[in-house]
Specification:
The protein has 405 residues and is an alpha/beta fold. It is built from 14 helices and 17 strands. A seven-stranded mixed β-sheet has the order 4-10-9-8-7-5-6, with helices on both faces. Strands 13-14-17-16 form a four-stranded antiparallel β-sheet, covered by helices on one side. The protein has a two-stranded antiparallel sheet with strand order 1-2. α3 packs across α10 and α4 packs parallel to α5. The chain is globular, with a radius of gyration of 22 Å. The protein starts with a helix and ends with a helix. The relative contact order is 0.16. It binds 4'-deoxy-4'-aminopyridoxal-5'-phosphate (PMP). 4'-deoxy-4'-aminopyridoxal-5'-phosphate binds next to α4.
Length: 405
Amino acid sequence: MEAIQKKHIKTQFPILDQEVHGKALIYFDNAATSQKPKRVIDAITRYYTEYNSNIHRGAHYLANKATEEYEQARERIANYIGASTQEVNFVRGTTEAVNLVANAWGNLNIHEGDEILVSGLEHHSNMVPWQMLAERSGAKIIIIPVLEDGSLDQAAFKNLLSAQTKLLAVNHVSNALGTINPVKEMISAAHEVGAKVFIDGAQAIPHLSIDVKDLDADFYAFSGHKAYGPTGIGILYGKEELLLAMKPYHGGGEMIKEVRYDGFTVNALPYKFEAGTPNICGAIALGEAIAFMEDVGIDKIAQIEADLLAYATEKISAIDGVKIYGTAADKASVLSFLVEGVHPFDLGILLDKQGVAIRTGHHCCQPLMGHFDIEGTCRASFAVYNTKEEIDLFIKALERALMML
Ligand code: PMP
């Protein structure tokens, strides 16, 4: 029964039914971007074939239909993460969300001498915008150290918190190592010293149940494309009182209530942060991706992926010379590894020739790679449609590649 259900999930992803280099495709690059189920692709086709139109203030049927679908998607996503629709802003993705907060909140609230705590696990997109903010404000970036197993040093984190701490930036799940960070506890500790918290949920949204109110996150961001949705669309959640107190990020249409030659007044939330024509189709398709996850069930998704990760970890550990990076007890879907004496890129190429797609390199986490004194890793990352049979084939392909190298 379980096997039939799993097969059914995989058949919903048309792209997976193909061969590359004459071999059945095994897609293990889900942390970079997930594949899209047919219902998401259909939603995109439907939008452009049936009701493509610019949203809001439309006097005609298509504009009203597009507006309705766009706002319904916002409502679905808001419900899914436990937020109100005012607090859910459509953005291009996680990267834009970090830049938005670093500018629209950071410019008002971060001053010379303030401290921004950034975890040592961060993706460049949750590091560089804070570095840029520190550069223009005179604030200081302080890094939360990473332990050998790829978890954050929680004792060091608590010691770093002080009255100077104004912001904590941390990912919920590490894209490079798969570590699930105890963000609820970290948020609570940061709040005790009066700091605000930005959570990068890019790798959490496809794998974990998210309730922003339960976490008490001040900001929570994710990208649609890592959670079965399209590229170019993502979400920035912010607490309403924080969003209200922020200045707009981009100026233009939609974010204004009224414009005069001598100035403008700002529109209500969430339009305040959605200047210009948004990615209407992307937002609607992201709503459909969330509906897909709701239909499968996030607990079931998490269970399937946890089984795959445990199975792959066990199998790969039996291969001579393999070292796994990221061995924390709490992990999601990512298997990062190196094989002694083998360059990750060479391995990636030889796996690709056998139909297996993995990612190699620094995974946009150069400082973290530096911490481990490596240039990069090989990363296999799993999604709900992957199977143990694929892992068996991956292990065989890996052994074959290692014999060739
Ligand atoms: N944070 C994490 C943890 C990520 O994995 C990624 C994407 N690899 C990002 C941020 C950036 O996301 P995007 O490129 O979709 O803006």
